[in-house]
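Attaching the record inline, Q. Sequence:
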Amino acid sequence: MNCGALSESLVESELFGHKKGAFTGAHLDRKGAFESAKNGTLFLDEIGDLPLTLQPALLRALENKQIRPLGADYTIKTNARIIAATHQNLKNQIRLKKFRQDLYYRLSVVTLIPPPLRDRKEDFDNLLSYFCKLNGVSFSFSSIQYLKNHDWPGNIRELKNVVLRAKALYPTQQINEFMVAELVDKMDTQEISMHRIDPTAEGSPVDYTIDELKKGIIISKLMTNAGNQRKTARQLGMAKSTLNDQIKYYNIDIKKLIHPKNE
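Structure, as predicted:
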């Protein structure tokens, strides 16, 4: 469960479940993540983004090993193993009073800090191959060497997004060193600078129409923002309603951008 991807009003229902009629729209009983993970493992991603108001409920569930679904008059025992991950510095969050200290120590039984991608280059080829096979993307030898020399401040997530950008902008072509330089160096700011591309290279942006380039930029930014249209519209300098019209015009399936495995 991604704690940062749900609104505050939905997190408690997602964690603990709800009974029919517990709130507007609750037409059926629904199991929460804790109950669904019985006898298994519950992975709480982006735990640092869990709203402060809901942290006491999570702490009680962990301490007592039982939950109460919304609208229920009974509790359910849980025995799921909990694994939590976050990009936040939780000790800083505690100092800022954005994360409960007691919840931190309840979760922090064993702490694992994976090394950054730049310090585990022995894994690079396997990771790149995996993302390329998943998305039907091919990189030339010279473009792979370019990728290996990149510092990867965004780690594996950045590598994944580069492959997804390549799929969006060059869906039928092998990625050469000119294309990959553009994908790595410029897409974070959503600028397509033609002077960085060899205009004689097959498949360079000059071969595409303005509509195709616009669609690629919108897709890339939506992927970077995990489908958040409000944030994407702000970064692209347009109204959210305008972005929504563009998504419909270009027939962009946001669900596939957020969950590419479902394609």
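The first strand starts at residue 41 and ends at 44. The two ends are 21 Å apart (CA to CA).

More tomorrow.
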